[in-house]
Structures are given as C-alpha cells and as structure tokens.
Amino acid sequence: MQALVLLLWTGALLGQGSCQNVASSHEGAPAPDSTGEPVEEEEDPFFKIPVNKLAAAVSNFGYDLYRLRSSKSPTANVLLSPLSVATALSALSLGAEQRTESTIHQTLYYDLISNPDIHSTYKELLATVTAPQKNFKSASRIVFERKLRIKSSFVAPLEKSYGTRPRILTGNPRMDLQEINNWVQAQMKGKIARSTREMPSDISILLLGVAYFKGQWMTKFDSQKTSLQDFHLDEERTVSVPMMSDPKAILRYGLDSDLSCKIAQLPLIGSMSIIFFLPLKATQNLTLIEESLTSEFIHDIDRELKTIHAVLTIPKLKLSYEGEVTKSLQEMKLQTLFETPDFSKITGKPVKLTQVEHRAGFEWNEDGAGTNPSPALQPARITFPLDYHLNQPFIFVLRDTDTGALLFIGKILDPRGI
C-alpha cells in the first residue's frame, strides 16, 4: 500500500504542465494574476549562478536540436552530445557582427541571460563538465577554407575562452581529412573511430563537435548477473540483448501520469547522473516526453524524485554517431549563417557556414565505484521493491549535477545500435 501511495504522490507531483517552462520563459512575458497585473516568477536559486544559467541556456538549445533529430529519425536510435555543437556555435559567434551574433545567441538562448561575458563563463562551464573524474570528453573546432587570412583579434579570444585554434584547409581532401581525424583522435584519446566520410570540396566554414562518455556507476553491477534477455522493440518483436541486473538497486524514482512514463535516476561518479524515461507501453509514442524536455523540467525532476529500492534491469550500451547536423541547425532559425552572415570579425573576405559535423561515442557497462550503495541514498520505506526494467524503447539524459548541463541525450529503440 505504501508503494502505491508513493507512486500516486510522485505522479501527481511530476505531472503538472511538464513542457511549459521554456516555452513561456522564452517569450519573456510573465503570466498575469487575477487583477491582470504581470507577476514576476521567483527564479530558482540554482539558476542564479552564472555558469548554471549558461548551462541551462545551451542545454535548452540541445533539447531543441534533439527534438529535430528525433523527428527526422522516428524508427532509429538517436545519440547526441549537443554541448559540443553548442560550443562550436558559441565560439563562432566571437567572429560575428551584431546581426549574425544575435541570430546565434537567440538560438543558444543567450538572449535570456544578462551576463556581460558569456564567453568567460563558457570557459568555466567547459572546465567543470570535462573535469577528469567525470569521464566526459568534449571538443569543438572551426575549420576555414584554404588560403583564408584570419584576424588575430578573433584567434586570441577563441583560444582563451574555448581552448581551440582555427584550422585552415590545405585544399588536399585526403590530407585535410587525415588532419581532422588526427585532431579528433588526440582530443578523444582514441575513443572515437576515425571518420570514413570524404571531405567536401566546397567548404567555407566547417564546424566540428565531438564528444565521448563512458559511464561509471556509483554502485557497480555484478557481471555474473548479466544475461541475455528480451528487449521488446514493440508488442510483437523482441531481440535478445545483454541486460545488467540488480535485484536490490537503490535509485530515485517517480511516475509522471501526464507523460505516461516511469522516470528513474541513477547516480554516476563525478557528480553526474542519468535520467531514464520509460513509457508505460512499448508501443507508446515518445514525442510527448520529448516535447517536455527542458533544463527547468529536468531540474524539477531532479528535486522531486524519491529514493527507493528497485529490481533493476538495464541493457549494456555502446553507441556511436557520425554525421551532419547541418539541416537541423538550418531549421533552428540559423539559415542566415549559411546564406548571408557577417563574419567580418574573422576575416575581410565574405565567408559563410557550410557544414556542421558531429561525432559522438557513448557507453556503459557493469563498471562502477563500488558494490555498496552510497550512505547518502536513503530509500523511502516501502513494503516491497518496485520493478524498473529498461526492456523496451526509452529516452535517457546524461546530466552534470554540478551545473545542470545536458551532456548526452539518447533515444534507444534498439540497444544493439542498429
């Protein structure tokens, strides 16, 4: 009975207008009260910290990008590390004049931030989320057409805030691809495969965002309990995949009745966590869940989930992505960057964005810090453990707890990565 009360209580708590937060905030108009006067909403203290506010902004860009990618791939897995793409765009904005800079900043939600120095705050954000204990690697790079003369007034702040230098193409596609591959290998310490894609011949500006993460659970799984189990692709089709099990897991949990999904959060070492959104039915459309994802909603979830005992199964996962996000960005009101931008702070020659490449690798297995749950996790008193089996399509969000930054997001329709 206690378990049922917990489910209903958290369900009611999490199921209140999940997706309104950013939609209303980006319009910038506080809702009126009964007298018709605008009422200023009290800002959460968490978002008053500049680096956290910036993390929320670029994460909301990330959720926007994810929604576009997912809508274009309704029957396939989606894996993204939007922060690496946001970083490349933010760095590029250093070279943009006011009109073009404003276009980039609005897409990154910077227009909601009263921060006199976005770029130095971004440097702090990158230093925090890529700290060695987090096992998260991210890098971005701006590549320019051959023989371009770049202003030193652009290179210096780029290197200062984003830790990267621009690259000028040689014009030899084979050598240019090799150089970019070598850079990726160096940044990711060999964790991402070399690209087999050919270099386009008509590059003006190429943005490259790469990221890699291998999770380390706070409480590791017993590899002897890992076994082949059914993953339900839908009501009729199943596949056998290696599933990790913990019959006495401690996790944070809630049921969102509006979204018809069970939400669970598992902690990782380095102040990181993964939040899972598991629909109640294998055939349930994930769109409603996806539309609800914002920095503010995820922050609210993080505050409201309750710690419980659970019988947990979760598929081992190793996914990678290599491809373009160019068209998605064009649909995010960035079309002018590809047509008539003003990057005169970079060079005296007219240049425009041609292509945005993204490479990402993500994996988790049984590895973790220890066999015993953290003493800080005090489960709610319930008479029996709940079942939480990630054995059907789900969405996950990898979040940095320190800043709230979205680091990875995935839609897993088939854990085999097909």
Key structural traits:
single chain; 418 residues; alpha+beta; Alpha-1-antitrypsin, domain 1; Antithrombin, Chain I, domain 2; 2 domains; 9-stranded mixed β-sheet; 11 helices; globular; disordered N terminus; signal; secreted
Number of contiguous helices:
11
CATH class of the largest domain: Alpha Beta
The proportion of residues in beta strands is: 25-35%
Order of helices and strands: HHHEHHHEHEHEEEEEEHHEEHEEEEE
The CATH homologous superfamily of the largest domain corresponds to Antithrombin, subunit I, domain 2
Per the CATH scheme, the topology name of the largest domain is Antithrombin, Chain I, domain 2
- Calculate Rg over CA atoms: 22 Å
Low-confidence stretches: 1-32
Helix proportion:
25-40%
Mean pLDDT: 89
Number of strands: 16
The major beta sheet can be summarized as:
9 strands, mixed
Tally of domains: 2
Distance between the termini: 41 Å
**Outline type:** globular
Q: From the 3D coordinates, which CATH architecture of the largest domain would you assign?
A: 2-Layer Sandwich
GO molecular function, one term: serine-type endopeptidase inhibitor activity
Subcellular location: Secreted
Protein name: Serpin peptidase inhibitor clade f member 1
Domain Serpin: 63-415
